[in-house]
Specification:
This protein is 35% helix and 24% strand. It is built from 15 helices and 22 strands. The protein is globular and about 80 Å long. The structure holds zinc ion (ZN). Keywords: Hydrolase, Metal-binding, Protease, Zinc. This is M20/M25/M40 family metallo-hydrolase. Belongs to the peptidase M20A family. Residues 185-327 form the Peptidase M20 dimerisation domain.
Length: 434
Amino acid sequence: MNDIDRAVSLLSELIRIDTSNPPGNEEEAILFLEGYLRKEGLSTEIFPVAPKRANLMARLKGKSKEKPIVLLSHIDVVPAKAEDWEVPPFSGEVRDGFVYGRGAIDMKSQAVCQLLALTRLYKDRLTPERDILFLATCDEEVGGQYGVEYMLKEVEELRHASFVLSEGGCIIEENGCLHAQVSVAEKKLSQFSIEAKGTGGHGSMPHHDNANEKVLAAANAIMSYQWPLKPTGIITTYLNGILKGEKKEGFTYTNLRETLRNKRFREFVESNPVYNALLRNTVTVTILKGGEKVNVIPTESSISFDARLLPTEDRQAFFRKIRVLAGKDVEVIPIGAEKHDPPQSGYDTPYFRGIKKVMKKLTGPIPVLPFVTTGATDLRHFRELGIPAYGFFPITLSNQELFRMHGLNERISVRNIGEGLAGTYEILKFLATA
Ligand SMILES: [Zn+2]
């Protein structure tokens, strides 16, 4: 069996172990990975953390006792509703050159590529300068309390890691051009709900103290506010790297700050969900709750929002603005404990240059650019400790394919798996010398 076939079969098997979180149940998947690593001769350790939940750490011993390098992947996935999928989400079925299933992109494929790249390094008898740790964790999709947060408390050397590589960026194919996104920061999670109380009653007798009407009016005000487009440092470097000289109807891209003054460019940004999310705070309605019966006015009602702020934004100021927009009839309740804002990782580093070199060797001279992940990942826990942490998986995807992540019919092509394996191995070889 060659490495690509092995990766495809490992990925299918891993997808078949349903690790939907909640509840997670990642232990079986963790034991599956551990079994493979142990069979290959690597030393492993399992960290049980709750019933059916565990984390795994494997080690490739280095020459020195310097701070280790961490290859990080989470083993849980977001839930999937089987009836909406073309291929059952926990089948791991290979169809028309794609492996289908929840976790195919996010991020069981990267876990498999990291695992196989590490075992290959071991079999090639390449001893790294420092230890390389393979860390597979549970619980990322609901915040990481049992996963990375637990492991950072439990294992001191992780708190002193020299570098962490995980998910968050890839090679993007757009209009026939390629560029690599290496994620060095992420937007700030700032979810909240608005809640209203009112007077109940019969639907046939409307009055002015209707909880549903209060949250709807507040939500309308929140949704109609346009958050300004702002050129942050990383995204300026990123967009300048891929758009410079681009001519579209009504604008020629020179640099971000200047081109943002052009109304047609701003319309172009707003029509592209990726650019839009990279350049402004986003606030999205996700849950509506209010009323049970069509003829009854409810006494309580709420609407929840998923909000993500640019890395440079102040969360307090954001909530002040939301409270003003929402008005006095509703209460604004932030969701999740307030956390410190994780700093971004620098991109003028040997790690960034190393990844650039590897990409040049594998894909030719494509732009390799710093990127901001719009979702949250476990890397933030490492960045909070000041550890350089990058999100990058060297596979080529279109944004359409990427949108399947957390969505319907998530899949990864066998070609991508080959690419991910080769790229991860080359990056690992570079890290082994770091
Ligand atoms: Zn993920």
